[in-house]
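Internal tracking record. Fields below are filled automatically when a chain is submitted to the structure queue. Please do not edit lines marked as system-generated. If the sequence contains nonstandard residues, flag them in the REMARKS field before resubmitting.
Queue: standard
Priority: normal
Entity type: single polypeptide chain
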Amino acid sequence: MFLFLFSIVKGIESYRRTHLLPFKELIQLAPVSSRQLFQTLLFSELIWLVFTSLSTYLIYFLFQYDIVQTHDLAFWLKHVNVMLTSIFLFIISNKIFGAYIYNIVVKKIGAIRVLFFASIALLFFLFGRVLILNIIFPFYHTFQQLFQSISSLAEDSFWITLSNKLISLYQHDLQQMHHALFSDGSVFLQFQALFNSPITLIVVILGSALVMRSPVRWIPTEKDQDQSSKHFRDLFYWYFQVLHKIQGLLFRQNVLIQKDIKLLKEKRWLLSKELFNYMFMSYEAFFYIGVFTGLISIIDHQALQIQLLFTLNIMILANQSYEMRMLTPSIFALSAEKKNIWLYELSQISLLQFFLSKIQLFYCLFSIPALCLLFINLSIMTVYQLFHVQMLIQLVALGIGFFIFPLIQLYLFPFTTKFNFIHEHEIGTTNEELEIIDKGQAFARNFLVLPFMYYLILTSFLPILQQSSGLVNVLFAIYFAIVSVICWILCRKTIYKGIEYVEKNKIFSIGE
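SYSTEM-GENERATED OUTPUT FOLLOWS
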C-alpha cells in the first residue's frame, strides 16, 4: 500500500516536467508527435524515480522476502504485479493530474471550485477537532490521572498501568479496525488477492499501454487572449482586480509592484490549482484552527484560551507565508528579471529598490489571508466569549506577524539568484535554492513560533503554570515584538549584503 501511495504522489509531483515544455515554440519543429514527446518525458521521469528511490523498493523487497517462508512462483508473481501496478499508478496519476491542471487553467473558476475548496477545508477543520477531542485528549486525560510526579515516570508500574488503560480505552476501535481489514471477505483481503493472479499482470500492462497512447494536452503557460476577454471574467480575474485596489491603497504609484501583479496574473497555469489556498488560507491552516478550537473548547481558563489563540495566529501566519512563497517563488526572485535588470539600471532604479518592491508585493498578496485570519479571530472570540482586554495581544500577533513573516521568507532570495535557467518554473525549486531559503526561514521561525508551542506543551503537564497565564500573555506579546524587531534588523542587513553579492558576482553573467 505504501508503494502505491508513493507512486501516486510522485506521479502528481512530476506533472510540471511532463506537461510543461521549456521550449514550447519548438513543438511544431519537433520530428516526433506530441504524444511521443510526452512518452519520452514520462519515461525519463520514471527512470529518474527508480534510480533516486531505489532504496525504498529494496527495503520493500527485503522485508517481504524475510517475512515469507516460501519463495515460489506465486511469491514472485505477486511482487512483479505490485511493481507493475506502482508504475501504472505513477503513469495514470501523472496523466490525470496533468489533465486536471490543464482543465482548471483553461476553464473558468466559479462556484463549483469554491464549494470544493470549502468542503476540503471543512474536512481538515473537522479532522483537527476529532484528533484533539477523540484521540489526543483521552490519552492526555488518562496520562494526567496517573501522573503524580516526575519520579513516577521512572517506575515500571506507571507505564504498565498506563498501557493497560490505553488498551482498554482504544480496544473497541482497534478491534473494529482489525475486523474491517482482516475478516473473511473483507475488501482489503480481496484487494490483496488480486496480486496473486496472472490476469492482473495482463490488465496492468494493457492499462499502461492505453494510458500512454491517450492524447496529451500541454498546459498553456502563455497569456491567452480569450481569458482576458469580458466573457472570461471569473474569480481569478476578480482576485487580481482586488489586488490592484490593495496595491493602490498600500503602495501608491509603485510601477514595479503593478508590473509584478500583471505578470502574476499571466501565470494562470501556476496559480489556478491552489488559488484559494493562495488567496485565503491553506488547508493546513484550517487543520490548525480545528486543533486549537478543540483545545479552547475543553479548557475553562480564559487567559489560557487567549494564549492558545495567540499561538494559533502566529502558526497560521508563518505557515501561510511559507506556502505562498513555495507556490510562486519565481515572482519574488531576481532571477526571473533576467531581461529587465539592465533596463532598470538605466532608469536609475537601484537593485535594492527592485527587490524591496518584491517584498511589498508579498505584503499586498498577504493582506487578504491576514484579513481572513482577523475574521476568524472575531468569530472565535464571539463563539467562545473571549471578551477580555488581553485579546488585544491578538492585534500584536496579527500586526507584527503580517510584516515579519513575509520578510523571513524572502530575505535570502538574493543569495539564490541565478540567470542560467531553462524555464522560469525552475526558479526557486532546485534543491540548492530550497535548502538555503528553507534553512534561513526555519532559523527565524525557531525563535518566532516554537517557543510558544513549547510553552503550551509544558503548561499541559505542569498545571501550576496556568495560574500565571495572564502575565504570560503579556510576556508573550513583548517577546514576540522584541524578537520580530531583531529579525527585522538582521533580515534587512542580510538583504543589503545579498544585493551587493548579486551586483558583484551575478549581474554580469546575464549575457552569458
